Amino acid sequence: MNSKSALIVPLSILLGGCPLDDDNPVTNLDNDTAELSTTLKTNRSYDDIADAAVWVSEENNDHNLLVVTLEGDGLAAFDAQGQEVFYEEGIKTLGADIRYNIIDSNNNHIDLLAVGLPDDEAIGFYHIENSSDNRLIKLNEIETGFAAESICLYQNITTKDLTATLVSEEGKARQYKLKYDGTSIKSVLEDEQGNPKHVREFSVGGELSACVVDDETSTLYIAEKDIGIWAYGADVENVKERRLVDSVEPLGNLGEIEGLELAYSTDGNGYLVVADEIKGLALYQRNNTNDYVTSFTINGIDETKALAIAPDAFWVANTEADAPVYEKLLTSSLTDFLYSKNIRFPTLVSHRELSVEGVALVKTSGETVAVDDDGDAADDPAFWLNPDEPSKSLILATNKQAGLMAYNLNGEELQFLNQDQNGNDIEPNNIDLRNNIRLESGETISLAAASNRKNNTIALYKIQAADGQDPIVPITVVGPSAHSEVPELASNLSEVYGLCMYAHNGNAYVFVNGKDGKVEQWELTSVAEGFEGEIVRTLSVNSQPEGCVVDDETDTLYLGEENYGIWAFDAQPNAGTEATELARIDNKTLTADVEGLTLFNNGFVKYLIASSQGSNSYTIYDLNNNNEVVGTFALIGDDSKGLDGASDTDGIDVIAADLGENYPEGLFIAQDWYNIDKNYENENQNFKLASWKSIMDAIQN
Ligand code: CA
Ligand code: CA
Ligand code: CA
Ligand code: CA
Ligand code: CA
Ligand code: CA
Is the pTM of this model over 0.70? Predict the structure, then answer.
């Protein structure tokens, strides 16, 4: 996120040096609001002032524009001094939200206002002009047939995908994915007749009064007026379980919830702000638990029903005044007031400042069929290169609830192996493989290993071309390290988790790790009956690892510690066990959890790629150049092909090889937590495919 020096409120400089405890804000304020007064009011009153939104000028807060929906009285806009500068009558409006820099395919961009049009059951779109006259220019309407009580926009700060959410008095929420075509706003999904089609609809409960989306955390907050505030995943592709932020008294801190807004700050913090008819304004942290901070009322405003936030001011509706207006509460006076209560209020920024820069956006080019099990099931892929016919290579992958899959490059399933050699269930978590492993017989095979959490074992497999045969063939483990009931290697870890392989001096090795941070290094030996294995070394990190990969050329094991970063170990069985830090979580290039790790090596460049799960992106490190960050990228959907993007990725794999015209420089594979079909209906998880060439093109642009 950029910070703009022009937006800095002077008091923040003072606050910077003050010994305030951010983690323990004082939450019990006395009801002393004498200090909190507004400085000005909008100059024209309307009977039914409803929701509002502030357009924030790039240059100066004095050029900001307050847009107010007036129900039957139409739509009005006021300048920063409260003077009306725009009025449209003859329409009914309810609910307003604004986003910036909405871009069409020719890179034209507009600042967009969306308002609810209840009479037409439609969303009205306006383009906001940064000029003195004619500030709002109507673009078009989208008919939804949905009686919206409130509307909120969401712009994914990485992908820039734009979504409108509508909530109704009947307890329903509905989302439309939107695109700008240069002249109007369209629904990405349309039915056969060309009518806009929503991408998601769900029931919240009782009467809904407001919604707002936190674009940075992708959280959709919905106010159920007499119950509480709910937090949902805002991305259609990233629907999480809902969570109750707070409820009304006596269980919670709220009274009657009427409005929701967000105050974003330069430091990534800020507040969810609730307009509560009884309690006034209530502040909540923007973190995962939305901790309650405080509530307060403003002099002269008896019922707080709606508000709109700009960096320099909170505009609060005074609906109970004899002449209803919006009143301007300066952020500086709010900051002073809260400061006197030992609550830090940060310097605010607008949505305009929210974006993740430097993440290359790559469209997925394919996906595997969905796995058999719902919930968190797909986990880790491994690529098998067919040396004779590269286009007939295989994508191997785990369904950690049920088995191993083999897919062709079109993502079609060729095999689903869901049993161990005794016919019992398996739970393979990670899979990796090595080619040209020489057997005792003299034959060389591709050898795969998977961590099987069902038996706490390492299962071994031979991988072969799928020419009329199953490509994944179990290999029997014998000898003293074999599990007593199943011919797999019995681990001493409390529970096997991440796994990767290593080949060295003709020997095959497996590294398997557990959630306690321990890592076993197994040496595999081919014998007449199959394989024997022996633990030759144990390594460790301080907390939960999972993703790992070995560079056989340099004998280096790269291991991700999920909440810390990436370590490098000498992979040789007789080497020391100390680790070198390669990268640490910084919430910029690498955001927890560090998940899958893989190597791209085409003989010219050698890159380590990490799944930066918390930022839904992948980070590339140049192993031949001091591990410098080459770039980060995200896999986004391609609506023209009915493909969705990848998010919350666990395992990844990459191959540097010419696999034909779709993948001339190689293929990147990523597990996708939220898989949807072309109609945005949820499907079980799967793996996304992307051309390495498109990744490099996006990063180099
Ligand atoms: Ca793998
Ligand atoms: Ca993990
Ligand atoms: Ca995780
Ligand atoms: Ca995993
Ligand atoms: Ca997805
Ligand atoms: Ca899909």
Answer: yes
Largest CA distance in the chain: 95
Q: What separation in Å is there between the alpha carbon of 682 and the centre of ligand 5? A: 9
Closest CA to 541 of 586, 618, 594: 594
For the chain, what's the residue count? 701
- DSSP string across 543-563: S-EEEEEEETTTTEEEEEETT
The gap from C-alpha 347 to its chain's centroid, in whole angstroms, comes to 25
Report the candidate in 11, 692, 696 with the shortest Cα–Cα distance to residue 365: 692
CB within 5 A of ion ligand 3: which residues? 593
**557 CA to centre of ligand 1 in angstroms:** 14
> Which pair of tokens denotes residue 162?
């734009």
Ligand 2 (single-atom ion) residues, CB below 5 Å: 546
Ligand nearest to the CA of 647: 5
385 Cα distance to chain centroid: 31
d(CA 458, CA 492): 11
Tell me the CA–centroid distance for residue 615 and ligand 5, in Å: 14
What pLDDT, in 10s, does the model give residues 577-586? 999 999 999 9
Nearest ligand to the CA of 548 is: 1
C-alpha 192 to ligand 6 mean position (Å): 20
The pLDDT-based confidence of 158 (bands split at 50, 70, 90) is confident
Ligand closest to the CA atom of residue 609? 1
Closest ligand to C-alpha of residue 560 is: 2
- C-alpha to C-alpha distance for 41 and 43, rounded to whole angstroms: 6
Q: What are the residues whose beta carbons fall under 8 Å from the beta carbon of 219, sequence distance 6 or more?
A: 213, 231, 232, 233, 234
User: At which residue do the structure tokens 């057997």 appear?
Assistant: 439
The answer to whether 135 and 124 have CB atoms below 8 angstroms apart is: no
For residue 316, what are the CA distances in angstroms to 66, 149, 305, 309, 450?
11, 19, 8, 9, 59
Paired tokens of 27 = 């939450």
Task: Please compute Rg for the chain using Cα positions.
Answer: 28
Report which bound ligand comes closest to the CA of 642: 6
429 C-alpha to center of ligand 1: Å? 9
CA distances to 214, 264, 284 from 270, in Å = 11, 5, 9
Neighbours of ion ligand 4 (CB under 5 A): 379, 650
Q: What DSSP element (H or E) covers 378?
A: strand 378-384
Q: What letter does residue 638 receive in the DSSP assignment?
A: B
> Please, which residues have CB less than 5 A from ligand 1, an ion?
380, 382, 432
**Structure tokens given for 636:** 């986004």
* Ligand nearest the Cα atom of residue 545: 2
**Ligand number nearest to the C-alpha of 674:** 5
Q: Is 106 left (phi over 0), alpha (psi -120 to 50) or beta?
A: alpha
DSSP 8-class letter at 650: -
* Strand-pair category, 84-88 with 40-41: unpaired
Question: Each residue of 658-669: pLDDT tens digit?
Answer: 999 999 999 999
pLDDT tier at 393, thresholds 50, 70, 90 = very high
Closest-approaching ligand to the CA atom of 400: 4
Task: Give me ligand 1 centre to Cα 198, in Å.
Answer: 36
Amino acid at position 538, single letter: T
Give the amino acid at 527: V
